[in-house]
Amino acid sequence: MDSTQDKAADADLANATSRPAMTAEKRVDWMQTFGLREMGVFYALLILVVVLSITTAMLGRANYLSVLNVMNVLYQSSLIGFMAVAMTVILISGNFDLSVASVAALSAAVFVGSANAMGLGGAFVMAMGTAIIAGVVNGSIVQFLGINAFIVTLGSLTAIRGLVLIYTDGASLTIKDPAVEQALRVFESNRVDVGIALTVLAVLLLVLGIVKLVRAGGLRPSSLGLLLSGAAIMAFAFAAGFEVMVKKPVIYLALFTTAVWFVLRFTSVGRRIYAVGGNPEAARLSGINVTQYKLMAFVFCSATAGFAGILFAARLRSMNPTGLQGAELTVIAAAILGGTSLFGGAGSVVKTVGGALVLYSLTNGFNILNLGANYQGLIEGVVVVAAAAIYTVGGRGAGKGK
Predict the structure, then answer these.
(1) Sign of the CA dihedral 142, 124, 349, 288?
(2) Burial class (CB within 10 angstroms; exposed 0-12, middle 13-18, buried 19+) of 27
(3) 3-state secondary structure of 192
């Protein structure tokens, strides 16, 4: 019976999305595709990189566009990137989770606290299990008791942070086993040369762009995007001498983001997540178990935060009870910069990663320019508000255009 309902729901969703797609193929709206609402975060990142590069060059500071600095920005943004991608999924589903950073901190504390006695495998299971339980509790309270997600996760943010203090007894935890410490270095800190992989990816994107161009009989947004992406990646690989050393968390984030993007874009699970966030009642009438998918989003978000916490602990080989405090605001800011709707039903994990890169490009640039932390907070806050305003105004304009 459930299988029949699932098939019917998939058919309804497919029919609802196929007609607009067919129309879009016939009439390409270039202004909408490359407008601020769709591509604003990438324009912001491009402008930011150009401005910081020119400024640092004029002031005689370190080269902002050096391969080493670019890789450093990617590495710095990787932990927030993980949590921001998961935050995007839960926002798309129509919910909210303020406790991600606290869950990550608790996971990190459990991991460090148990690694010496249980080894990496046991510590990993304990940390991830703790994070998943937090997600189940949050989701169950929201979905079964009907309490607003903002209130629930605001409370769990404080409660879980209290658990971190209780577990650590207010003191820093440190991994003392040399074998475990070395294994964590291999897991988190080792560098991998991805120069050849980037070159292959660039060639693949260029070929796909050309194929789409030929099949469409003219330039389309999809083919132009593939060509520009391929050309940019190839140019970067060439500038680096086809030797690009990145730390493993950057690779983990790339693989994770690609997997989540694929699920959201090409699978029935992804279509249902968008459906339950955009119009829960319509999704329910289509046979979708709305409660199940919203609960799954909470668990997924907390599990991802748990993995990010493990990476954080592996990076420092220790855990301070105040670690990652306030990081949830950066996570939400990255999702907002990426154009994810706070009301559900709309969002892109790729653009969310772009939002995280904008934030950490700002931070990195401020550090190179020796600007104080006060200025950083002010400018980052203005950027987030400006992005929200652009997306809101752009959404109203698109609505009027329709």
Answers:
(1) negative
(2) exposed
(3) strand
